[in-house]
Design a protein that fits this description.
The complex is a heterodimer of chains A (about 130) and B (about 180). By secondary structure, chain A is mostly helical. The longest helix of chain A has about 35 residues. Chain B is built from 7 helices and no strands. Chain B has 2 domains: about 90 residues, Rna Polymerase Sigma Factor, Chain: A, CATH 1.10.1740; about 90 residues, Orthogonal Bundle (Arc Repressor Mutant, subunit A), CATH 1.10.10.10. With about 180 residues, chain B is mostly helical. In chain B, α1 packs antiparallel against α5. Classes of the chains: A mainly alpha (about 130), B mainly alpha (about 180). At the A-B interface, α1, α2 and α3 of A face α1, α2, α4, α5 and α7 of B.
Chain lengths: ~130, ~180
């Protein structure tokens, strides 16, 4: 920008500043009310909460790059946790069943249903030969 | 925060008013911008507040434009359906050009009051294309540097310089037509 343009811009801005000083009382009052409303919200945040909020915002900013939002992150975490839970529950159930049979065999405390099972009977005969 | 808001609120209101030409809407925009600043950026260092506030303010003005455009999109077919005449709504975005106005065509008085000159300047600013006005006000009124203005406007520094230059020339031309010499 050349010098005359810059000078003109400065003079225009001086007039605009004058206009701001001459702002009508109604608009001033409304702006004052708006400011007070915004500040009351600001004052409601204690320092510790403000610190936590800052940390939260920082964390959100970091995660924002990888996920669209914190909600998505929470949903994904919940889904992963549910899948892990189901897998654990299923593997644990099968293991428990096998452990019960092994324990019963070793302690000769098999349930009566085991002796009624034909497969088990033939297995006993085969293993005793 | 209080001092900062008290310092910028009236300029912010004027900026919004130049952009939307409706004092109620302009006051709403400033109120929204102040609330967003205190809600989201209350813990940021004071030195960062001017840039943050300007970014919020300009985004809020743009949101207002978008809402107006959407409203116009919906109301136009309805009004045409009922055969209503267009009510003179103008797109406040880039489509605006500096034009002669009948109000300005009166012979200028030699001794204009300062308030009269101000009224001319404000009218001329309102008639600038939105991006030119935004660049001009950010650079010269808010005294941001070119890089900061470019960041807020989401454009290159070269574009900011071009918009500023065009805005100043357009203002000079408009004021010149009225015989106003600053």
């Amino acid at each position: 920008m050349n010098q005359p343009e810059h000078e003109l811009a400065k003079k225009i801005v001086q007039h605009l500043d004058y206009g701001v000083d001459q702002l009508e009382p109604r608009a001033r009052a409304r702006l004052f009310a708006a400011r007070q409303s915004a500040l009351s919200h600001y004052r409601e945040q204690p320092v510790a909460v403000a610190g936590l909020a800052w940390a939260g915002q920082a964390a959100a900013r970091i995660t924002d790059h990888r996920y669209a939002s914190a909600r998505q992150l929470a949903a994904i975490s919940l889904l992963v946790a549910a899948l892990v839970g189901i897998a654990y529950w299923q593997s644990n159930g099968v293991t428990n069943e096998a452990t019960d049979i092994d324990t019963g065999l070793l302690t000769d405390e098999l349930p009566i249903n085991a002796y009624l099972d034909k497969g088990f009977d033939s297995w006993l005969k085969r293993s005793s030969r | 925060m209080s001092d900062f808001l008290a310092e910028v609120e009236r300029r912010a209101y004027k900026q919004a008013l130049f952009a939307v030409r409706d004092d109620h809407a302009a006051l709403d925009i400033v109120q929204d911008a102040m609330l967003k600043l205190t809600e989201k950026y209350a813990v940021r260092p004071t030195a960062e507040l001017p840039l943050l506030f300007q970014r919020i303010l300009q985004n809020t003005i743009r949101d207002y434009y978008r809402r107006q455009k959407v409203r116009a999109l919906w109301t136009m077919p309805v009004s045409s359906l009922f055969g209503a005449e267009a009510d003179g709504d103008v797109d406040p975005l880039e489509t605006l050009d500096v034009q002669d106005d009948s109000k300005f065509s009166e012979p200028p008085a030699e001794q204009l009051e300062r308030s009269q000159v101000l009224a001319f300047i404000e009218k001329a600013l309102e008639k600038l294309p939105a991006r030119q006005r935004e660049a001009f006000l950010l650079r010269y009124w808010e005294e941001l540097d070119v890089a900061e203005a470019a960041k807020i406007m989401g454009c290159s520094e070269g574009s900011v310089k071009t918009h500023c230059s065009r805005a100043t020339r357009a203002l000079a031309a408009t004021l010149g037509k009225q015989g106003i010499k600053l």
